[in-house]
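ASSEMBLY PREDICTION REQUEST
Request ID: AP-0331
Submitted by: J.K., bench scientist
Number of chains: two
Total residues: 650
Priority: normal
Notes: Please return the full assembly, not individual chains.
Input sequences:
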Amino acid sequence: MIVFFIRRLGQSLLVLLIVGLVAFSMFRFVGDPINNMLGQERTQADVDRMRVELGLDRAILTQYGIFLKKAVQGDFGVSYRQGRPVIEVLAERAPATLELALVSGALALFFGIVFGMYTAIKRDSFIAKSIMTASLIGVSLPTFLIGIALINIFAVKLELLPSFGRGETVKIGGWTTGFLTRSGLIALILPSITLGLYQMTLIMRLVRAEMLEVLRQDYIRFAWARGLKERSINFNHALRNTLVPVITVTGLQLGSIIAFAIITETVFQWPGMGLLFVNAIQFVDIPVMAAYLMLISLVFVTINLLVDMLYFAVDPRLRVSGGKG
Amino acid sequence: MPVPVLSVRDLSVEIPSRYGVMRPVDRVSFDIAAGEILGVVGESGAGKSMTGNAVIGLLARPAHISGGEVWLMGQRIDTLATETKRRIRGRRIGMVFQDPLTSLNPLLTVGQQLTETILEHLAVSKKEARQRSIQLLQEVGIPAAAERIDSYPHEFSGGMRQRVVIALALSAEPSLVIADEPTTALDVSVQAQIIGLLKRLCRERGVAVMLVTHDMGVIAEAADRVAVMYAGRLAEIGSVRDVILTPAHHYARGLMASTPLASLGMRRLRQIPGSMPRLGRLPQGCAFNPRCEQATQRCRVDPTPTLSDDPNGRAACWYPLKGTI
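STATUS: Completed
Returned structure:
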């Protein structure tokens, strides 16, 4: 298991290095940053001085090394647009995105498993069939459309829920949270539904498919033959056996919830990292984009690692063979 | 005469389908006394397993009992409510399935599965349930049971797993055990051990056993009486000695003639021509008539003969055989 863990850790680092290379090369592809930073009234001497100052005169690999070294220390340079350290800007926006992702991830997981189990166990019932049909909508409608539709219904027509922003937030240390105020919680409803709907239907369909497969297994029939309660069979025996694939997908989906909150954040003007990223693209704010890229890949890699570890907790068969590889 | 543990009377199972109503089990009757092993043999699809499932109440929809009665220790059980039926399963009827590799839940330890069954049916504490589980494992011949109880199913060999399955079937001290092909998936040498174990437990605990198999060797070795099924009907029933040495039904004779039995010495095996008719395509008259060498006009026209048409009450045949094969 430890060997396995170390190997996965090595793979994760490799992925991060490659993403770092991509992020780094962005600086070069989008033109000479010195042109952007020095105005029209520049002399060649200014340009040369700036180039040395920024280390742009050195070999590419050296520059990459320096970039990585700084990145590890959390130094992604200064945002072109805001003139503040990128890490500071990101840290300010992260709580909004993480809270949104957490809530919609939890909603997606909870309702995904509940509906998935229900539609598998009562697969011939009318309600189950209705849920399955409705889930097609969740899969096929694009996120922004769902967001706009929800705003139209609940904010514009019914005037029940706010259409944008986080509501009031409370600052605890460096973390601004919307969990503690009424308006903060209310503001979370629409964006988290919008963001989580697709993941929910995905998890639901996966749980359903896995459950149908597991319910056919001999050990489930044997559990019935032993006279166990239906509830215990469904949860303790069947659900548990569906968890390995569900964990995989949920883990990956949590990563993409954070990464692709961009659209939802834009629709709801949610002051998170996604919105920051969209604005950064508009203003070609490369340091912000590079840092965002690195951060998201870090999130993905970490979640993947955690998912792999979770397998061992769920499936005892892996604990034996997993140690060897 | 004491009340038999299991008494099945004219049991029929029907499956409605697009092509009409199938009858995989058709008016089957038999008794099993305490401490007795009744072997049920027949080709695949003869209705052996279906009969077992009907008795324990585990028919998968849309199959259902369409007629007849099932009595357990003088109590009629086929008409009970779902919840009462569940309490009988495991508690008063234990079941052993064919494949020990798939009958156990891979994610729960053997001890968890045993104690779960015991706690479901008996009013004992967790500690007592665990103690009982260890005893059961010892009884079915698992070495070092006290340590092995916390192992997962994949840590046992196939034969050992079948022992665990038997321990599970016996965990609430049922009076009847239905063993559905308990040795088919095992190595020959292990088969003998499992049969020996079943026989021993049957004698020691006075459990009635319904041993469903297509292996005549297993029947000859283990059973006291044998019921031969063909196309959902009981073809012949009698003591193992009688049925093997002097079968009365032409199908039973064909079955014996095609089975290598060491006790009968070396001889050429004969095969029964043709194959068992599919359900819903049963011929008029005796279901075996197209394959029977001695079929007459009566066999093709008259309604299916039953056991009561044989003066000795052994074979469902108009012209039961007398003498040896």
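REVIEWER COMMENTS: The CA atoms of residues 1 and 320 of chain A lie 9 Å apart.
SIGN-OFF: pending second reviewer
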